[in-house]
Amino acid sequence: MNKLRNYITDNLSLIFMSxxxxxxxxxxxxxxxxxxxxTAIIQLTVWEMTKLYFFRIPELLFYTLPVTFFIAATLxxxxxxxxxxxxxxxxxxxxxxxxxxxxxxPALLLSTLLFVDFFILFPHSKVLSSNFISYxxxxxxxxxxxxxxxxxxxxxxxxxxxxxxDGTFSKVFLFNKKKEEEILxxxxxxxxxxxxxxxxxxxxxxxxxxxxxxxxxxINFDTMMINDTMKTELKAYMKPYDYWTSIxxxxxxxxxxxxxxxxxxFPMLSxxxxxxxxxxxxxxxxxxxxxxxxxxxxxxxxxxxxxxNILGFYTIPTVATLWLFxxxxxxxxxxxxxx
Length: 339
Hints:
The protein is α+β, with helices and mostly antiparallel strands. It has helices at residues 2-36, 46-55, 57-82, 85-91, 96-140, 240-245, 250-269, 271-278, 289-306, 308-311, 315-336; strands spanning 151-153, 156-159, 169-177, 182-195, 198-211, 216-231. The chain has two domains: 2-139 and 236-336, no CATH class; 151-231, no CATH class. The chain contains eleven helices and six strands. The mean pLDDT is 83.
């Protein structure tokens, strides 16, 4: 029995990897195309694009693994049926329940990994990705052009001379006009600093002038820091439980939680349907396995998304119970009565 179990598992692993690589590659290409749209707003190096891609890997895995297992397990049994190996197995007195138990273990393992993925890894990667994009946008908001008028830095009008090879600027002038006071700052050199999303202009070796109707003041400085008023809105990292229970974006996270729980359960809940589609009599039964694969995926995702607005959190037990009941009846009719 162990050899038979290992034989089925080995076949499942080969088909699973071939399908997973294809689906994951397609999902990665779609994400990279979406990622390319960011370059119209922010500048990204190859390494930065790679970092963003790594941040989204938990999401890519979550939406490809359940479907991959559903397709791979069905095609594994269908292949064994077409090669008459399934008939030999049942002729030896082995019941279809053995096939269900063999598939249930990898399904349970996969569902557990999917729970860990969406409940723990997904909030962390979501915050990292969002903060990274916000950080890059804050850099893009401040686009300095040397030897041109019209630059601004918060409330300051800014003129820059020549940009050096090390990224610093020479002959820098800043002007700020308030209601009762005007300020002029001149510096020999300046450097842009991004400190945790706060843009700062670091000035070197200059003078500052402040004048109004009542007084005129002058200062000399070696180093001066001027902060920009634009600040990057970075999301604070929260523990997984705090993330899912917080009131911020509560409605969106509620729908996401319901969907993710049911998608995590999809491998286990579809065991009966997998056996019903995959176990066929190659000579007497004409299987439409690919059509059933498509319809099974569409109906499950349709129930998951369609009932959320009506049932709320009750969608989880409703869909799980209904799906198990329907697929078990299908299994009894197609498999149990025939084999």
